Amino acid sequence: MTTLDDDEAANSTYSRQVGDRLRAIRKQKRLSLQEVEAQSEHEFKASVLGAYERGERALSLPRLDRLAQFYSVPIEQLLPREITGSETAALESPVNKKLAINVAKLIEMNGSPFEMLARYLRLIQVQRQDFNGRVITVRGDDTRAIAAMLDVPVDQVGSRLDALGLLYQRTED
Asked: Is domain 85-163 given the CATH code 1.10.10.1930 in the classification?
């Protein structure tokens, strides 16, 4: 049987984990607490959101749902989860060639291959819990799937994405 103190400690830990997820997604969106307050038309006050992120204030389910809608992420992405052994191994495995794809430009393109690629990249974003929405880096295994979607050999995926203007080019200031 758990005591009240054990329950409070578990709730406090869980609240901090939820807060960590909230902070991570806000930062991925490149928003400050004040920007969230302004863009939400003061629905989410910076001080209250900060308290949620620090795990100092409880968050109701309707409020969590509104935050998920505001951040344009599935609600389950705001909740902590355990990483399985296979996910840990995948995260630690060496990756070959990485390609940075400009997602913002991709969603402006029409046609079946581009729509399929956009859906595939959204799936990767959910798996990685990466919701910045502008750029995603794909890895070796992802490149094979993209080759099939674009109907090109695997070794030509980078050049095809570049020809389509979909490779992200970092601009130097």
From this structure: yes
